[in-house]
Amino acid sequence: MREFIVENLTSAETISFAVIVLNNLVAMAAAFFVMLAYKVTYSGTAYSRKFNISLGAITIITTMIMSVISNNIALSLGMVGALSIIRFRTAVKDVRDAAFIFWAIAAGIGCGVSQYLLIGVGSVFLLLFLLLTKNVVSSGKQLMVVQGRPEAQNQIEAVVSGHFDGKAHLNVKNLSAASCELVYSIREGDLAKANEKNMIDIAQRLMKLEGVERVNLVEQQDDISR
Q: Which of 44, 59, 67, 162 is most buried (CB neighbours < 10 A)?
């Protein structure tokens, strides 16, 4: 009985060269598909090419791991133990990025066990889901801070209101005898459309006003990372 258990734990079927090549070719195709989906569905100003390339690499690496452990129980248990002591300290800047990491891992697992149809159909449906829900997720916001002299306040408010058709929300208004500061929140989509419609950037337009000293645009993050 003991010999039977040891034999089943340590035995491993040799994977043919053709299957290895096919698994990795499909994994590479799946990797490019995940990378394309990330680029197409990403919304924000902090798009990272390095992270996108890492998604493709994760897919191929996971395929190699699954090819090694799929036919050997002992290696599977050893791999679980080895991976459990690895600590990844890289912070994920967006919750949606975690979904793409799991997608890349799932694609690699499927390619490693030659489940091509499952990965292909699942990836297509996942891409359709992300495209359909892309507009549901609110886009990021920009904070526009305008500083200048008090006499320029009315002009600033009029220009901002006209530039964005009233879609810019005034969050903070600070006035003193020597200066004024106005803080607006604007959706990234509205900011881009307004600049294109008026054929001038809002910052450049405001800086042309007499009394305006500084215009700052800052990305506003809805999620707080710790």
A: 59
